[in-house]
Amino acid sequence: MRAQTWNPDWPTAHCVNLGMKGAWRGVETQYIAASMKLVDTLEEQDLLERLLEASKPPTAPSTVHKHYLLLSPFRYFPQHSSRFRPGQQSGLWYGASTLEGACSEIAYWRMRFIADSAGLAKDGAVVTEHTFYQASVSGRAINLMEPPWVEFAHLWKHPSDYSATHKLAEAAANAAIQWIQYESARAPCCALAAVLTPDALIADDAELEQSRQEWICKATHDAVMMKRKNGAEQFEWRE
């Protein structure tokens, strides 16, 4: 019989100093195209972007300078839940040890968006642009892919019930854990990172910009197709 809960002492007793080098993250970038529709000149576009930036929530505090792509997830309080973050709480930085793993996560959430969009026709499609980039993660962590945490893999990898991982993330934050390593539910054997504080993220501006890739994503009710701009890489996801 499976145990139903972990020992509350584990976040302190079973934490390690852990790193993930070159973790991949994908973010939607269509906001640029959206704002371009509202202006007639590049000067107006620049002014609009500055106004939009000024209206955003302040960046999360960090002990050192961080690129805006690293800080951005912590600025917002999304209404929907993610695996380690309840709805309407500060966002987290999620990354994957492989580019395929990052694509799998994007594809899953695009398909969720399609499924939840009641007004979208059954044969409709949504095309979006995404930026993928790499950053390293390092710090005080718990590794759910190792004992004793792996005993509860059925909870950490549940496809839709995040109640256990939400409780774990709260306990980890209270124990000053900086990030959580866990196995992807979408890309088996791929290690993912849920970063609780921006101080666990490492990437100087030059390294981050060098790793950037631009992708096009087409999502329907049945499939998600992704292809890199100016590159041969592609990815397809079907339910």
> Shape from CA axes?
globular
Helix content: 25-40%
* Beta-strand content estimate: 25-35%
Domain count: 1
Which consecutive residue ranges, at least 5 long each, have pLDDT under 50?
Answer: none
Query: How would you classify the quaternary structure?
Result: single chain
Terminus-to-terminus distance: 31 Å
Helix and strand content put the structural class at alpha+beta
Radius of gyration: 19 Å
Number of continuous helical runs: 8
Average pLDDT, to the nearest integer? 86
Question: What's the SSE pattern?
Answer: HEHHHEHEHHEEEHEEE
Q: How would you characterize the largest beta sheet?
A: 9 strands, mixed
**Beta strands, count:** 9
Task: Summarize the helices and strands and which ones pair or pack.
Blueprint: H1 10-13, E1 16-28, H2 31-36, H3 42-55, H4 68-71, E2 93-96, H5 99-116, E3 126-143, H6 153-156, H7 163-174, E4 179-183, E5 191-195, E6 201-202, H8 205-211, E7 213-219, E8 223-228, E9 234-238
Parallel strand pairs: 3-4
Antiparallel strand pairs: 1-3, 2-5, 3-6, 3-7, 4-5, 7-8, 8-9
